[in-house]
Amino acid sequence: MRLKSLLALSLFTLSAHAAELTLSDAVYVHQLDNQEVKNYLWNKTDKLELSPGQHQLKVSYSWIFDDGFESHTKVTVDEHWITLDIPKDGNYLLTTPELIDIDAAEKWAKAPKFVLETAKGKTLAAVAPRPDAPPPPPAPAAAPVTVDGTNMAEQQLQYWWSQADAATRARFKAWLDKQH
């Protein structure tokens, strides 16, 4: 019983430190930051757990509109990248402006803007997609390797300098001067 209580408490604390993004029926997320999001024919991903902060999402739009007697038209927007700023923990909705008919949907599809709202319906941002991928996250800077407190790269440079002849040293100096 105590184990179940601890497990429930840990799940509660994990969910309390994340934002939940609900997707409207016609909005599909294919990638979240650097992770692929799976959508299946009859099982669409409709909720994402996000930490507060900036996120890159690859999204698309697809909806079938009734346009008359047993006639339907599908409106789609291909995959594009959007950037969302999640301000804090809580519940959010990613949707489109209200598209009441096929004409409104087709007009919107030419210059789409997705809408980020709070769970209470307050609009936080209208986000225009872009076709290009987001820039990769910066790589963490590697600390220099040291042996006995001496920088390994410096030791290697000194070794190879001592091995080089005068002509090689002159070419290296010329190359080094061009680097600055």
Q: What does this entry look like structurally?
A:
The structure is a single chain. The protein is α+β, with helices and mostly antiparallel strands and 180 residues long. The chain is built from four helices and eleven strands. The protein has helices spanning 2-16, 102-110, 152-163, 166-178; strands spanning 19-23, 27-32, 35-36, 47-50, 53-66, 72-86, 90-95, 114-118, 123-127, 146-147, 150-151. The strands form three sheets. The protein has a five-stranded mixed beta sheet, with no helix packed on it. A four-stranded antiparallel beta sheet has the order 3-2-5-6. It is elongated. It starts with a helix and ends with a helix. The relative contact order is 0.12. Residues 1-16 have low confidence and may be disordered.
Largest sheet, order of strands side by side?
4-1-7-8-9
Count of helical regions: 4
Q: How do the helices and strands follow one another from N- to C-terminus?
A: HEEEEEEEHEEEEHH
- Helical content stands at 25-40%
Give the strand tally: 11
Mean pLDDT: 80
Counted up, domains total 2
Question: What is the structural class?
Answer: alpha+beta
Determine Rg (CA atoms, Å). 27 Å
User: How many angstroms separate the termini?
Assistant: 67 Å
Q: What general outline do the C-alpha atoms trace? A: elongated
Q: β content, as a range?
A: 35-45%
Low-confidence stretches: 1-16
Main beta-sheet strand count, sense and barrel state: 5 strands, mixed
